[in-house]
Specification:
Blueprint (H helix, E strand, L loop, with lengths): L1 E2 L5 H16 L8 E2 H8 L15 H11 L17 E5 L6 H9 L2 H9 L3 E12 L7 E4 L7 E2 L3 E7 L10 E3 L42 E3 L6 E5 L4 E3 L8 E10 L3 E2 L28 E4 L6
Antiparallel strand pairs: 1-10, 2-3, 3-4, 4-12, 4-14, 5-11, 6-13, 7-10, 7-12, 8-9, 8-11
Helix pairs in contact: 1-4
C-alpha cells in the first residue's frame, strides 16, 4: 500500500539529514557494501573494485556465478552517461540519533500495527538504499523474510523515498497478492536471481523474464509518501537510468511476539548474540518494542 503524504515536511527534512550523515560515514560502517562493486567482481568486469564490506564470501560466490551462468541484472547503459553506484547499509538507527528517534518513536509503529492487526510491534532493523544517477544494477525480485532470521511472516517493510521516484529512476515493482503464495523462497544475491549459497528452499519463478505474467506493478512515489509491503510480498527494483539519485530508507517492523528462526542462506544479523537457536525470544535491546495497543478500561 502507498500512504500518500504520510510524513510531514519536517520528518522528510530530518530523514534527508540522516541520509546525508549516514552516507558521510558509509566507508566506516561494518554493514555497508557497494552492490555495483560486488557485481563487477563477480562478473569479472572490474577486478580492482572495492567490495571489502560485502556480506558474502566473494571467492566462493564468484565460482557459483561462473557455474550457474546467470546474467547480471541491469539496465542498458545510455551513451555518454556516467555510471553510478548501488549502495546498501544496515542498522543506521544504531549510529544516528535523529534516525533512531524516527524509527522507534515516529508514526510507523502504529501504522504497522494497523496493517498487521497486531497488538504489539517490534522494530526489526533498517537499511538505506541509494541508487546514484546511472546506477544500472537492478535488485532481483525477492521476499524480505528470506533474509530475516524470524519465525513467521507477520511483518512489513516501510519504504521511504527521499527523492521523486518514477519509472526509469529505480522504481520499486511488486507482485500483487504474492504475500499469499505458499512457502518462503530462497534469498538471492540481488544483482542476479542466483540463490545465496547454502540456501535450501525453492527459487522464485522467473519474474524478471516475464513480468506481465505475474502482474508486476511499479510504484511512483514522492518524498512524504511511504510504501508498505508484507514480509512475503515479492518485489524488486529497476536500475536508475535518470540524471538524479534515488535515495530511500527501508524500516522493518514485525509482530512483537515473533521469535528467532535461523534461515539457511540468510546473512547473519549483525547484532544477534552468538548461540541463538530456533524459538529464542528476540532481544529487546536489538529489536525494541515500539508500539503497544492500550488496553480498554471496563
Amino acid at each position: 500500500v502507498k500512504l500518500e503524504g504520510f510524513l510531514t515536511g519536517r520528518e522528510v527534512a530530518q530523514l534527508r539529514k540522516a541520509m546525508d550523515e549516514a552516507l558521510a560515514t558509509f566507508a566506516s560502517s561494518p554493514n555497508a557494501f557497494d552492490v555495483t562493486a560486488m557485481a563487477d567482481l563477480l562478473w569479472r568486469e572490474n577486478q580492482s573494485a572495492d567490495s571489502s564490506h560485502a556480506p558474502l564470501d566473494l571467492e566462493d560466490l564468484a565460482r557459483t556465478v561462473r557455474r550457474a551462468k546467470l546474467p547480471r541484472l541491469r539496465e542498458r547503459a545510455r551513451p555518454l552517461r556516467a555510471r553510478g553506484k548501488f549502495l546498501i547499509d544496515t542498522s543506521i538507527w544504531r549510529r544516528n540519533a535523529r534516525f533512531t528517534e524516527f524509527a522507534l518513536r515516529g508514526p510507523l509503529g502504529a501504522a504497522a500495527a494497523s496493517l498487521l492487526s497486531a497488538e504489539e510491534i517490534r522494530f526489526f532493523d533498517d537499511q538505506l538504499f541509494v541508487k546514484e544517477a546511472g546506477a544500472l544494477d537492478k535488485a532481483a525480485f525477492h521476499q524480505d523474510l528470506s533474509y530475516c532470521h524470524l519465525d513467521g511472516g507477520l511483518g512489513c517493510a516501510v519504504w521511504i523515498p527521499l527523492d521523486p521516484v518514477r519509472r526509469g529512476s529505480g522504481a520499486m515493482g511488486y507482485v500483487p497478492g504474492s504475500h499469499r503464495w505458499p512457502g518462503v523462497y530462497n534469498p538471492n544475491i540481488l544483482a542476479s536471481t542466483l540463490a545465496i549459497p547454502g540456501s535450501d528452499g525453492p527459487d522464485l519463478p522467473g519474474i524478471e523474464t516475464n513480468p506481465e505474467r505475474f502482474g508486476v506493478t511499479y510504484m511512483d512515489a514522492n518524498p512524504g509518501d511511504v510504501v508498505i509491503h508484507h514480509f512475503l510480498t515479492v518485489h524488486g527494483s529497476e536500475g536508475n537510468t535518470s540524471l538524479n539519485a534515488r535515495r530511500a530508507f527501508s524500516l522493518r517492523y514485525c509482530d512483537g511476539a515473533m521469535r528467532y528462526r535461523r534461515r539457511a542462506g540468510a546473512p547473519v544479523q549483525p547484532l544477534h548474540p552468538a548461540g541463538m537457536t530456533d524459538g529464542h525470544k528476540l532481544d529487546s535491546t536489538i529489536h525494541p518494542i515500539v508500539f503497544r495497543r492500550k488496553s480498554r478500561r471496563r
